[in-house]
Amino acid sequence: MTVKSKADTLKERQDRRFINKETQTAAKYLRRLEELSNAPDGIEQFYQVLKNIYVEMGHTETGNQKTVGTYCVMTPPELIYAAGAVPVKLCSGNYTAFSVGDSVAPRDACPLVKAVAGFKQTGLMPVYEDCSMMIVPITCDCKKKIAGMLSENCNVTTLHIPASRNDEDIEEFTEQLYQLMEKLEKATGSRITFESLSEGFRKVGYAQYELSEFIRLKKQIPYLIRGSHAMAIMNAAAYMPADMWGKALHKVNAALRKNIAENKTVTTKKLPRILLTGSPIVFPNIKIPLLIEETGGIVAADETCMGERGMWDPAVITDYSFDGMIRALANRAVRPCPCPTFADNSQRIYRLKQLIEENQIQGVIYHVLRGCLVYDFEYRRIEDELGKLGIPVIRLESDYNEEDIEQLRIRIEAFIELIKLKQTPEKRTTVRRDF
Ligand code: SF4
Ligand code: SF4
After folding, report:
1. For the chain, which end, N or C, has fewer CB atoms within 10 Å of the first or last residue's CB respectively?
2. From atom 5 of ligand 1, which residue's Cα is the shortest distance away?
3. Domain boundaries, the chain
4. Pocket test for ligand 1, best of 74, 112, 337 (most atoms within 8 A of CB)
């Protein structure tokens, strides 16, 4: 055997090991989701999408359309649809890719970025390999460095995210969206017109409309759906065209309305209502929501990027011209975004208080991915603000391995017990309306 063929065999063996481990882990987390009782009818389509991407290592269903990878919710999907392509969110929660990335990225880089680096290193994940272009908004140092790494073998464009949100910042971001438009047109070969941009708004708007109904139903007490199931639905949105996702969610919404009519709820028990916030929770790294619900709580709301944050806020067009639409996208991406990457985090505090009030939250779990400084920095301020409202909050630091599961379980269990002792479930949280 020649040296070259020996090396090929070694690479093949490594690839096979990677695929086996990656697919087994994803299958295990899908099974745990399926084992959680009382999932709504219609959720199977979302499980199937996650299975297709992570267990079968398939492609996104885009017909003949090209895909454009994105790495942050601040990338406007409307613009990508307008260029005749389908956006795919590529932030990763993959444990196996993380362990590969751990050897190529610096020790203190966050696990999300290490997992992306791992997929780049192996070249084995079709959703990454299929992209005609990748858009990386520069929201932290990790994103900046990963943009450089990805551009070694992919067409990468970056978006500079301003530190503040004043009019000049929005003006500058609008200018960047015009530049992005030209790059998208070049990558897809399709011109962005008034009509195609309107169609992009329609597609995303339909998904947002169904999401708003889903959020309304999700708030009902007794609960109609568990937060872990809701997060699986939201995570699947990363790999489905918006109108396909909206149609699938329409079926879930119909099933939930039927359950109301038939008095069917997830449980009749009054479970402690938890708000989950902090660093992104990306499938298959869903150990924290699963642990919350397996230890007797319910994720009543989430304020995370792969959860409701990604689509909850529609762009508002006040001027129905092409420029008006681009400005609406720039405003929506930057002004209300509760990401802690901005210097001023009052939007974040506002949004958390809003979710606490609307969902009658009794405790907040603040998730920090090890190395994610932007979220970690904010913890103290949020703890202080929530302390003023009498809402208990716990900070859970974790990464993409399973070794800390028992330790996380003990802390989550203790937190849930504390809430049970502290507040009767009937007691409604009162939030001061001075935000
Ligand atoms: S956490 Fe912030 S930077 Fe990261 S994807 Fe979400 S919005 Fe973007
Ligand atoms: S915001 Fe946090 S999780 Fe996201 S890439 Fe930056 S360091 Fe990683």
Report:
1. N
2. 72
3. 7-422
4. 74
